[in-house]
Amino acid sequence: MKQKWPILIFSALLTAFIVLAGIWGNAQFEHLHSGSVLTAQHAAQGIALDGWRQEAPGQWHFTFTVGEDIPSLTLCVTNTAVPLAHEGLTSLERSGELYALDVTPGETVELVFTCGRSPQTWLMTSAFASRAFRFRTMTQVIALTAFVTMGMVLLALYHYKHLPELGYFLLYLVIMSAWALMVFFFPAIRSSLLQRILRSFFSLTVLASALLAAGLLGVKLPRSGRGLLALAAGCVVFFALSMSSYPPLRVGVLVAGMCLCLYYLMAAVNADYEGAALMLLPGAVTTGFRVWALMPGLDSALFVESVPFYLLRCARLYDLPFAIGCMVFVCRRFALLFDRTEQLARELDARVAERTKELTAETEARKSMMLNIFHDLRSPLFAVSGGLETLGSAPEALPALLPALRQRIEFLRRLTEDLFLAAKLEQKQILLNEDRAALNEEAAAVCAACRSEADQKGVELHLSADTPLPVWGDSVRLQQIIQNLVTNAIHYTPAGGSIHVDCRAEDETACVSVQDTGCGIAPEDQSAVFDRYFHTTADKKHDSTGLGLTIAQELAHLHHGEITLQSEVGKGSMFTLRLPLLTD
After folding, report:
1. CA distance 322 to 15
2. N or C: which end of the chain has fewer CB within 10 A?
3. Angle 527-532-537 (CA atoms, 0-180°, nearest 5)?
4. Residue range 329-333: average pLDDT?
């Protein structure tokens, strides 16, 4: 397995860098401590209120002095804090999130809120608040539009291709869109039920992220039995702990869930899963932003969130990198599938064209064969018909015509037998009666049967069959193979020529070579000698049916062997039957 340590280390460092950079960047903004003086410069930039004092259960106090003339102030409250009566505090149209605060220079202002934890509040001028919250609204709309757009694209893909991972992605985008909508319309929720629902979204996004990563990376999640129960129980425990009212426990569980998802992506990259890095790097970015966004929930004096960080957190932009990375991963997968489909289509077209060419050639070969068969059938039929007509008018000519008639009838018999056997071989209807056989003895039997035919033509037939060649096969078919080779050599060897049949063993192969001194075969014809329906022509007429070599080669293949050819024009040809040699 090829290790991917550089990208894994970079992803971990990237997450840590984002978290630390967020903490450092937030610390660069000034805080207004209780009892301090508020300046116009602080108000113009927006400043967080730090150091709330709890003077009664659930009651928090904060005081500051107005140092200069500040025309108007806006107080932003983000959590469940509810202000007690204050004559200069007026609620604005942001669902209890924003309040207008009227102050005069030198005045000491005391803010009193009821809340279960230290209130998260900021002071700013009305002009700054107007610009800042327009920016937040714009970024929230951008994030929501991005989630909805990706959801529509995924919905279209899922409509045409029902893949489980697309369903997981749709679920993730639905959760993100619902969360973005809820934050947009309810920036400061007072209802305890809505507060719990809003808090549950973060847990749901972590679970959905893990489910999405597993689905896209091809992990088969359990769907029944104990595996499904264990998975469901784990999710319930995680969700319950992540909803804890104890901030360190809640934040710790959520961070652990995000790190587990990130570790899973790293494992996929390390396992060389194709395209996993497309989700790992954006996942590392989103994990870092999410950890940073959880920091205010710790209610720690070490991290008092500033106005710019609060606005970015409310915009929900930090979840976009992982969503975009997953979208790129899905698009890449579909693009690769499309490329593969195009490649398969091109290969299929090429195969169809090649097969069409082969079928055309085969059709032409069949036509040529049929013409040759008709020619070979017509000639003896004409000879027999002419002989019968002669006998009808001159019966005394029977002794002279009888040998020629027998020869033509014998040729017709052999031609029909070869045609029938070739058809059975083509339909794979030949069954072998296999047993142990001696190939050298089969060759000797064939040569003894063909010797009279060779002598009649004036061709010398020599045999060398002293080497035992035990093989496994059908004795009748083995003799038929050798007989076709020998008779083919006799047909193409002129009178005065010779044929040598040699039986020998080469390594673990039994070989029977039939070498003649005939006319030989041209190089351009040698590759087609064993083709089905191939018919050679010769200047000299002979009684070959033109199917012997085709039948012999196919019978050799049935015996797990083959016939090879060596030929030179003008010097003759050598056909060699090669079969597996039995060694025991």
Report:
1. 13
2. C
3. 70
4. 89
